[in-house]
């Protein structure tokens, strides 16, 4: 199994510890991980802003870096969803189609491909609220959507249940968007902030000590909202918990 690690640009710039935790976690699970050094952005920010043609060169570079691997794994649902569902600016060659079909978000890869049954090194004795990024939830189906009448399932919760000492805080509106939305938080700052305030206040009322997610982008937005409201919440990527972070 040849596995390539894709570290999104915002993780690389703002939360490099998440990329490191992802690498260490995969290696603990026996995966031989490679990191293509010429990788950059997947093109999502440009596509989200309507600049589809401008993202073509970035998407082509992504394919050049990740072609030929059995799996491409990333600690980001939104970036993975872009690659799988929205990487349309580049010509859809066989190599592009292959890269798109072999790209997986970290939780998907652990749950669906590796089918991990235990994290014996992980212990996190804290009460944790779980946030599912909208793209990961509704685009990648990492959990059941509360607006649909379907049996409940949650891939991230299933993995976190295997961490010693961790307990869950239940949110009143677990599937509500936090308002980040990538460039949405820039162009619709007021709406984005109001949504973020609603989200973090729900987290605080739940009694959570920590909030975790498989997307650092949402948590970066939520952490800023919580700090401005003076709420004593801490934010940590799920890869760090599964890798054995104690905090």
Automatic annotation (TrEMBL):
InterPro entries: Cys_rich_dom. PANTHER family: LACTATE UTILIZATION PROTEIN A, UNCHARACTERIZED PROTEIN YKGE. Residues 3-83, 128-221 form the Cysteine-rich domain. It holds the Pfam family CCG. One of its GO terms (molecular function) is oxidoreductase activity. GO terms for cellular component: cytosol. The lineage of its organism: Bacteria, Pseudomonadati, Pseudomonadota, Alphaproteobacteria, Sphingomonadales. It comes from Zymomonas mobilis subsp. mobilis (strain ATCC 31821 / ZM4 / CP4). This is Cysteine-rich domain-containing protein.
